[in-house]
Amino acid sequence: MLKTASATMTKYLAVLALGWCALAPVQAQTSASRIAWISPERIYNESKLAKLAGEKLQEEFKSREKAMNEMGARLKTASEKLEADAPTLSEADRVKRQRDVFELDKEYQRRQREFREDLSQRTNEERQAISEKATKIIKQLANVEGFDIVLQDAVWASPRIDITDKVLSALDKDK
Questions:
Q1: What's the predicted TM-score (pTM) here?
Q2: 44 and 14 in one domain?
Q3: CB neighbours of 40 closer than 8 A, spacing ≥ 6?
Q4: 43, 83, 97, 134: which has the fewest C-beta neighbours closer than 10 Å?
């Protein structure tokens, strides 16, 4: 029994040693890998395309935003007027005005929700277009500079591997 345990242990150690030898080339290859990192938030906020998209969205939603502000002001005025007049109103008039203010508030909430959803959807569409262009540039840059992997959304990355400025520069030229 002792001989079998010793033989099994010897085989185990031999397999373990072979595993380490097999990993040596992988470790050597890994140390030669080139890694880069980009900040997608900087791409979405600092590129000329992002700024143009922001201006485009602002122009596109300007009239709706103005209408929302006007409706909000009407709601505030109606609510304040109801509050001020409530003690002098008859029960029927007070109930009618409360219902009117409630309906106006409900409509305002609905339009506000639609506005936010539409703006969010359009913002995502514009970001997707920027992302597609940036991805092309990142792939070209990776091929030219020989990167094995380009990461994003890291907790921390050394400025030495940050290629965001290069991508921004190429994206701004390409716009």
A1: 0.71
A2: no
A3: 131, 134, 152, 153
A4: 83
Closest by Cα among 46, 63, 59, 47 to 122: 59
Residue where the block lists tokens 């097999």: 22
Distant-in-sequence, close-in-space partners of 57: CB < 8 Å, separation ≥ 6: 119, 122, 123, 126
Burial of 104 (0-12, 13-18, 19+ CB in 10 A): middle
138, 103: one domain: yes
Structural domain including 136 reads 33-174
- State the Cα–Cα distance between residues 108 and 74, nearest whole angstrom: 10
103-106 contacts, C-beta under 8 A, 24 or more apart: 104/71, 104/74, 104/75, 104/78, 105/75, 105/79
Distance of CA 96 to the CA centre of its chain: 45
Could you tell me if 14 and 43 lie in one domain? no
For residues 72 and 118, membership in a common domain is answered with yes
98-152 per-position pLDDT tens digit:
999 999 999 999 999 999 999 999 999 999 999 999 999 999 999 999 999 999 9
Total structural domains in the chain? 2
